């Protein structure tokens, strides 16, 4: 272990959980990192989701309504992301290890396994997106070569994560900003249809679609903010940095969608057909590797919660190779509904964490993230209540799961209203349940005798 410590740069992530996390990321390092994650090719290709498409995929809202809904969802999601970021900075622990203090060491394995499953899926999805976008730029080479190239870049970034974050701040962020400004100027010069044509009927469905993208980073936020110099800086960098660029990227995607008359399969065309469009769109394609990097790195760190002494470098290389193989073999579109379903369970989990960390046990002198942290079934119960609230409002699109919750909803005579946001409602319900259980059961619903003193 001693030789490993000497070999590792002091300002890089430890190889195992036995070493403390260096506090080396300032506000601008983190802000640039989250800002880059906010600009994704999915913000262009998936922009139609904030227009509340019907069963046939046709948008039901106007572009203006979609922009407002997206902005509302992104701001709420950004604040939630900030709430997930701050505990990592305060405790110095990665996300899944942090959950030992919330659920107990052994019970933290439940969200850890779910997180690993979704991160492997999203890492695979990102490699497919990069390869498809690269072929849209130039299809002169086989698709598999783009997948392998993206997998190699992802793996290299993952082995040196903090160095990669600083690299993003110094170089990539500037290139992305230049590309965004250029495309705004070019697309706004194009003839646009009436952006108010349509309804506002699916406002909260659209807001939830944007919020869900922000929330997808909640289970990994602390993996990076544990290296932040302050909790306040971690909150601000995540909430502001991510929200601003996601709004900018989605508006650009919606403008492109308007230009192609709502045809989501052609949403990249307006970018590629303008002067220098291919060159500057290549910036987005290459930069997309930071999305796959974040997913693969956080998968390795999540596995360390199960196997604390596993070397993250070995895990990173193995996972990088694994998601590359999956991207070569799978059609991730068949998995997207399942990924969204897994992601939905982390919204109420954040509600439980925020309530307990900021208003409950987290106010005690020490947050117990040790390997012997006692099980807290009360917090699991609060999480479960929040999951139920989410599924009753939005049961997703996975056949058997959707049918089950639709049946439950019918049995309860419950009809979701248009003003209901599954994410906001489940967050609030889970947080309220956590506070109630914490006060009834002692230090956070463990059944212990000690009471939290204020």
From TrEMBL:
Pfam families: Transp_cyt_pur. The chain crosses the membrane at residues 33-51, 63-86, 107-131, 143-163, 170-188, 200-222, 234-261, 267-286, 314-332, 338-359, 380-398, 418-437. It comes from the Bacteria. Its main location: membrane. It is a multi-pass membrane protein. Keywords: Membrane, Transmembrane, Transmembrane helix. It is found in: Membrane. Belongs to the purine-cytosine permease (2.A.39) family. This is Purine-cytosine permease family protein.
């Amino acid at each position: 272990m001693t030789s490993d410590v000497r070999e590792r740069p002091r300002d890089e992530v430890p190889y195992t959980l036995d070493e403390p996390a260096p506090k080396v990321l300032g506000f601008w390092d983190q802000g640039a990192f989250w800002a880059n994650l906010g600009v994704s090719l999915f913000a262009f290709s998936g922009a139609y989701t904030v227009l509340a498409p019907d069963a046939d995929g046709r948008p039901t809202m106007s572009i203006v309504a979609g922009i407002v809904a997206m902005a509302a969802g992104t701001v709420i999601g950004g604040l939630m992301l900030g709430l997930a970021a701050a505990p990592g900075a305060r405790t110095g622990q990665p996300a899944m290890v942090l959950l030992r203090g919330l659920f107990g060491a052994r019970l933290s394995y439940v969200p850890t396994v779910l997180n690993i499953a979704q991160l492997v899926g999203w890492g695979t999805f990102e490699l497919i997106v990069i390869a498809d976008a690269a072929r849209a730029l130039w299809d002169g080479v086989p698709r598999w070569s783009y997948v392998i190239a993206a997998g190699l870049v992802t793996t290299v970034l993952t082995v040196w994560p903090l160095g990669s974050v600083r690299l993003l701040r110094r170089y990539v962020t500037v290139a992305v900003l230049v590309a965004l400004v250029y495309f705004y100027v070019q697309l706004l010069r194009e003839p646009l249809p009436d952006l108010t044509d349509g309804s506002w009927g699916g406002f909260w469905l659209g807001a939830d679609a944007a919020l869900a993208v922000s929330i997808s980073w909640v289970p990994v936020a602390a993996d990076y903010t544990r290296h932040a110099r302050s909790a306040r800086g971690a909150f601000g960098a995540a909430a502001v940095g991510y929200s601003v660029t996601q709004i900018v990227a989605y508006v650009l995607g919606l403008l492109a969608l308007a230009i192609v008359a709502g045809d989501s399969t052609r949403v990249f065309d307006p970018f590629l057909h303008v002067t220098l469009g291919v060159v500057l769109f290549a910036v987005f394609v290459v930069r997309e590797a930071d999305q796959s990097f974040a997913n693969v790195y956080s998968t390795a760190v999540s596995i360390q919660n199960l196997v604390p002494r596993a070397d993250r470098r070995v895990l990173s290389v193995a996972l990088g190779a694994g998601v590359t193989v999956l991207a070569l073999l799978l059609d991730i579109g068949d998995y997207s509904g399942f990924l969204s379903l897994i992601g939905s369970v982390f919204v109420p989990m954040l509600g439980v964490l925020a309530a307990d960390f900021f208003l409950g046990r987290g106010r005690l002198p020490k947050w117990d993230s040790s390997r012997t942290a006692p099980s807290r079934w009360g917090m699991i119960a609060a999480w479960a209540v929040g999951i139920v609230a989410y599924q009753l409002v939005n049961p997703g699109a996975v056949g058997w799961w959707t049918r089950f919750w639709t049946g439950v909803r019918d049995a309860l005579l419950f009809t979701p209203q248009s003003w209901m946001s599954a994410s906001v409602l489940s967050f609030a319900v889970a947080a309220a349940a956590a506070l109630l259980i914490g006060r009834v059961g002692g230090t956070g619903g463990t059944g212990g005798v000690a009471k939290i003193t204020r």
